[in-house]
Every structure is written in structure tokens, then in C-alpha cells.
Specification:
single chain; alpha/beta; five-stranded parallel sheet; two-stranded antiparallel ribbon; about 60% helix; about 10% strand; elongated; coiled coil; nucleotide-binding
Length: about 425
């Protein structure tokens, strides 16, 4: 008898209990729907909070964690699905047996689905408790993605290839590029950096302008920023140590130090030297070969020379357009290009200044470029460089602009805020 009772109890447990549970869905219909609405509101609040953090991070330039982005998409889908379910509540109000009884089948289905969705939303809510929604991105040089400033002149193809080959050489870690000011060294080494990264020669390419009076802290800050390091509040020596440690960890990185004028202490900056450089290589530009060979001990140097006549004309035409092919202008333009002596620093601003100008203005510009007092400068290229600066100065619209031009040249101001302070006498 006890065995029969035990068996009967087990049968009841496995058969009756599930039936009762299914029946309770109809009874707890309103409770399940209300719980679903409450959980949905909590989820919407949580989503809004995460979205706010995401938007704030994007404004700061940070990247968003992939799990966060996936969570937001999943939440949006869940919200749409639940809102549709809640809207379907009206179906459960349809009554059967000529309005005498609620539609139990519809209530059962909606109640069961509401319970399941409420549990799913609770799970989503828990997954949305992120410690962080973003990560700090490392800014990449914009010129690494652009080829607009570089023209593939035939005379410079071999130089470009030679520099890339030298950078590929495991025995070289410091390479130099030299040539007079305005010859196009900066444009060339940027193209070297772009191609080197594109061809996976380096994983990272970082550049910094040194200038005649090197600011070690500024160079450190610029390099650190592009490595994702924060070193603002630290001393120069600590900055150097932190940079050194980070650069030694890098497997393939190229640092371009542009426009150096004399000996530069790389160790004081935090750039690894030859015996301890890891995967770091340095590319320098200077006006003097002696600076690169004697003061910086570069293992190989490349010279950048002036453009030939054909290349100078191509660059000038790129800046002005086809208008210079006009028969009336062409002879004057040819003389103007000749006066630029193959210097990009002369060709580009003069071409831009004279674009769409009248023949009279072209002839007047040519006269300015040929003025005899400029011949007191040594060398045709120096004359051309000075001439183009003077012509660009004369083309500025107004005395205030000319004074600003002189102010920038006098004190080497590269910050707009500093320029305003100096200009206002503050």
C-alpha cells in the first residue's frame, strides 16, 4: 500500500504540478504584465545612463568598448519586442462565449511570454553594469592617410626609395635627410612615413617638429600623446624615462624629428639610443649635412635637391589650374616659374597668390621677383626664397595682416592663443 501511495505521489508531482503551473499563467496575467512593465522601465533608465557615458566618451575622442556597443543593440531590440508585446495586451481583452468569459488562450500565451521576457530583461540589466564603457584612443597623424600634399616627381623617386630601403636595413637606426629650407624635406619624409606604415614596415609612425630652439618638454609631450601616455605633470627627466621604457617595448616604430638645427640629445627626450633601441628607428631632417653626419651620427644621409624645370611647372600648374596655359599668359608664367628656382616654398605661395589674376598682375609680380636689390643675396635659391616671401607679404590684404605676418616670423608663434596675446600686447 505504501508503494502505491509513493508511486501515486510521484505521478502527481510530475503531472499535476506542471498542469497547475500552466493554469497559474492565466491567474497571474496582470501580475506578469505589470512586472514586465516595471523591468522595462528599469532597463530604459539603465540604457539611457550607458548611452550618456558613451556619448560623453565619444566627444572626448575615446573609443567605445565592443561589449557596450553590442549590449546597446541587444537592449534596443529587446525594448522594441517588449513594447510590441505590451501593445498586444488589447487582444487579451477580447472575450469569448458571447462576451461572458475572458479569452483564456490569449491571456495564457501573453502571460507566459511576459514572464519569460521579464526574466530576460533582468538578465540584460545585470549585463549592463559596465566598469567602463570606453578606452583611450591613440591619435594617428592625419597626414598618414592623405597623399594630397605629395607629388611623385621623377627626381625624388630614387631618394624616396633609398630612404625606405635604409629604414628596412636592420643595421640602420638613424637616417638623415638634408637640403635647404623650403626644398620639400618635410613633405618627402611624411610620404616616407605614410608608405612605410602602409607597407607594414612600421606599426606606428610619429613626427615632431624640432625647430631652431628645441623645446624638449614639447617634443616629449607630442611623442607621448601619440603613444597614449600621460606625462603632463612630471619632470623632464621622469618624462624621458617613461618615454624610453615605452619606446623600448614597441616592436616597430618610426620617429620623425623634423627641422633640427644642431646636436639634439635624444636620451634627454627619451628616445632609445643605438644599443638599446628595441624596434625604434629615427628619421631626421636638417638643412645641413654636417648636422646629420657630425653632430647626430646618422648612418646614412639623403639629399633633397631643387625641382627641375618640368617638375617646377607641374607643381605650379597644380596650384593655379589650366589658366596658365593661356597663350597671353604662358610666357610670363614661364618666367615667374623660372624665378622660383625650383623651390616648392617659392612655387606654391606664388602660384596661389596669382591664381585667377589678370595679365597685368602677373607681369607686376614678375617685376617684383626680378627687382635688382634681391640679387645682393648669395645664391639663386636664396634670392628666390626671399622674393617669394616678399611677394606673399605684398599680396596680403591689409596692413594688419602684414603686421601679423611679421609677428609670426619674428617670434615663431605656432599657437593661435599666443598670437592673439602678442598681437594685443598682453
Amino acid at each position: 500500500m505504501e508503494i502505491v501511495i509513493s508511486v501515486t505521489a510521484k505521478v502527481a508531482e510530475y503531472l499535476v504540478a506542471p498542469i497547475i503551473r500552466q493554469f497559474t499563467y492565466c491567474c497571474s496575467y496582470n501580475t506578469n504584465l505589470e512586472k514586465l512593465k516595471n523591468e522595462l522601465e528599469k532597463l530604459k533608465i539603465a540604457r539611457a545612463s550607458v548611452q550618456y557615458k558613451v556619448d560623453d566618451s565619444r566627444i572626448k575622442g575615446d573609443g567605445i568598448q565592443q561589449p557596450v556597443e553590442e549590449w546597446l543593440i541587444t537592449v534596443d531590440e529587446a525594448i522594441n519586442e517588449v513594447e510590441t508585446l505590451i501593445a498586444d495586451k488589447e487582444k487579451s481583452n477580447n472575450r469569448c462565449l458571447k462576451g461572458l468569459c475572458p479569452n483564456l488562450k490569449t491571456r495564457y500565451q501573453l502571460s507566459k511570454k511576459a514572464e519569460r521576457e521579464a526574466n530576460a530583461i533582468v538578465g540584460l540589466h545585470e549585463k549592463g553594469r559596465f566598469d567602463s564603457v570606453s578606452f583611450r584612443t591613440i591619435p594617428e597623424e592625419t597626414w598618414l592617410k592623405s597623399t594630397q600634399d605629395f607629388m611623385h616627381f621623377e627626381s625624388r623617386k630614387s631618394t624616396l626609395k633609398g630612404i625606405l630601403d635604409a629604414l628596412s636595413n636592420r643595421n640602420f637606426n638613424m637616417i638623415g635627410v638634408y637640403g635647404m629650407g623650403g626644398i620639400g624635406k618635410t613633405t618627402l619624409v611624411k610620404e616616407v612615413g605614410r608608405q612605410a606604415k602602409e607597407n607594414n614596415l612600421f606599426e606606428k609612425v610619429i613626427s615632431s617638429r624640432v625647430s631652431q630652439t628645441p623645446q624638449i618638454k614639447e617634443i616629449q609631450r607630442e611623442i607621448a600623446e601619440k603613444l597614449g601616455l600621460k606625462i603632463d605633470q612630471e619632470s623632464e627627466s621622469v618624462r624621458a624615462w617613461r618615454l624610453l621604457e615605452q619606446l623600448k617595448k614597441e616592436t616597430k616604430i618610426l620617429i620623425i624629428l623634423d627641422d633640427i638645427w644642431g646636436s639634439l640629445d635624444l636620451e634627454a627626450i627619451g628616445i632609445p639610443l643605438a644599443d638599446d633601441n628595441g624596434g625604434c628607428k629615427v628619421l631626421l631632417t636638417a638643412r645641413s649635412q654636417d648636422v646629420l653626419s657630425c653632430e647626430m651620427d646618422c648612418q646614412q644621409n639623403f639629399v633633397v635637391d631643387v625641382l627641375n624645370d618640368k617638375e617646377a611647372w607641374s607643381l605650379f600648374k597644380k596650384m593655379t589650374g589650366d589658366c596658365i596655359e593661356n597663350g597671353e599668359l604662358k610666357s610670363v608664367v614661364t618666367e615667374v616659374v623660372k624665378e622660383c628656382a625650383g623651390l616648392p616654398i617659392a612655387i606654391v605661395p606664388i602660384a596661389k597668390a596669382l591664381k585667377n589674376k589678370s595679365p597685368y598682375e602677373w607681369r607686376n609680380a614678375l617685376r617684383q621677383l626680378k627687382r635688382n636689390f634681391l640679387r645682393s643675396f648669395s645664391g639663386t635659391q636664396a634670392v628666390a626664397a626671399y622674393s617669394t616671401i616678399q611677394l606673399s607679404y605684398n599680396q596680403l590684404g591689409g596692413e594688419e595682416l602684414r603686421k601679423t605676418f611679421l609677428l609670426i616670423g619674428y617670434s615663431y608663434i605656432c599657437n593661435v592663443k599666443d598670437l592673439l596675446y602678442r598681437g594685443m600686447g598682453l
